[in-house]
Amino acid sequence: MKRLAKWRFLSLVAILALVLSGCGKPFLSTLKPAGEVADIQYDLMKLSTFVMIGVILVVMVIFVFVIIRFRRKDEKIPKQVEGSHKLEMIWTIIPILLLLIIAVPTVAATFKLADVSIMDKKDSDALVINVRSHLYWWDFEYPGQKIVTSQELVVPTDEKVYFNLKSMDVKHSFWIPAIGGKIDTNTENINKFWLEFDEKRSNEAGNLFYGKCAELCGPSHALMDFKVKAMSRDKFDDWVTAMQDVKEPQKAQDGVAAEGQEIFNQSCIGCHAVTPSNNMPEEARIAPNLTNFGDKARVAGMLDHNKEEVKNWIRNPETYKPGNLMTDKYPEMSEEQLDALAEYLMGLKVQE
After folding, report:
1. How far apart are CA 234 and CA 231, in angstroms?
2. What ranges do the domains of the chain cover?
3. DSSP characters for 227-263?
4. Which CATH number is 26-64+87-245's, of 3.40.50.150, 3.40.309.10, 2.60.40.420, 3.20.20.10?
5. CB 207 within 8 A of CB 124
6. What are the angstrom distances between the C-alpha of 110 and each of 103, 104, 114, 115?
7. For a tag site, which of 125, 172, 190, 313 has the least CB within 10 Å?
8. What are 59-108's pLDDT values in tens digits?
9. Alpha-carbon distance 345 to 294, whole Å?
């Protein structure tokens, strides 16, 4: 009975593991590629999987055949065979061929994905984005367009987008599962790579992808998300123009928001910028840029984008992202002040 209970428990655990393996968010799946890099990586995954499954099937067939064909029928000791050159050649050559089948496309893809030479050319018109990782948020600078945004990466579709990646504190890792990656952001050097966002599949995904930090970096590592808005080149150019037109902090439109702006200027502006200009050196960007906060999809990269969650975050950020650098950086606020500040922040939009 104890043995039966143990098998029931193990069966339950196995079924639960199988069920949970199907849970998760579709926009975080590498099995639904939406770009050239993701396609290449997905094809390599399928190739490796098919080769491994093929090897397992062949070995299992041989195993079953040997058990049935050569099972012992009497006490007679069978003829001992040693040093079969034919068998040795077979089990040496076949693994080499399988290794070549996997290695050749993998090496070719590695060199293709590592080619970022165009981004270093002076006359290049390629879109280059500087990614800077922090505890626990992301900073995106467009040096050619002279704008900076945070927590949301905006990119054009159907063209290569090149990235310079660096960490401003500890090692992180930049990863957009549906598009490609991952690649580390280090403190001591800059890593470079490129991605391409397919327009058709981006439209099917609602033009919104999700990225994550894929390197354990602290207590809120799992919450270090960012959003990616993929759009056509025309819409991307419109977004760039709208951002560039913001030369100074946007003025509040009503009395409550105006009160919130005053509170912001007294308590928040020392850390948060509300203009997209990249005049501020990257070392001085100690908090996310809030120029287009009202257009964002999430609060703090993880909460629903509404006034109540804005207030919850400001009231106690440590509850949502333990170890974040915003905790205790501002004075306590009354509910009226939080209402006013949330009203102002939600009104920071660069496009209607």
Report:
1. 8
2. 26-64+87-245, 255-346
3. EEEEE-HHHHHHHHHHHHT--SPPPPSSHHHHHHHHH
4. 2.60.40.420
5. no
6. 10, 10, 6, 9
7. 125
8. 999 999 988 887 877 777 777 777 778 888 988 999 999 999 999 999 99
9. 6
Q: What is the DSSP letter of 149?
A: E
Cα distances (angstroms) measured from residue 319 to each of 23, 134, 253, 315, 343: 25, 19, 31, 9, 22
Strand runs labelled E in 120-170: 127-134, 137-142, 147-150, 152-156, 160-167
26-64+87-245 and 255-346 share one CATH topology? Answer: yes
H/E stretch holding 342 reads: helix 335-346
The closest of 255, 264, 230 to 155, measured between CA atoms, is 230
Rounded Cα gap, residues 137 and 225, in angstroms: 7
CA angle 135, 136, 140 (to 5 degrees): 95
Q: Which CATH number fits domain 255-346: 2.40.160.40, 3.40.50.300, 2.60.40.420, 2.40.50.100?
A: 2.60.40.420
Residue-level pLDDT at 298: 86
Segment 296-327, tens digit of pLDDT: 888 888 888 999 999 999 888 888 899 888 87
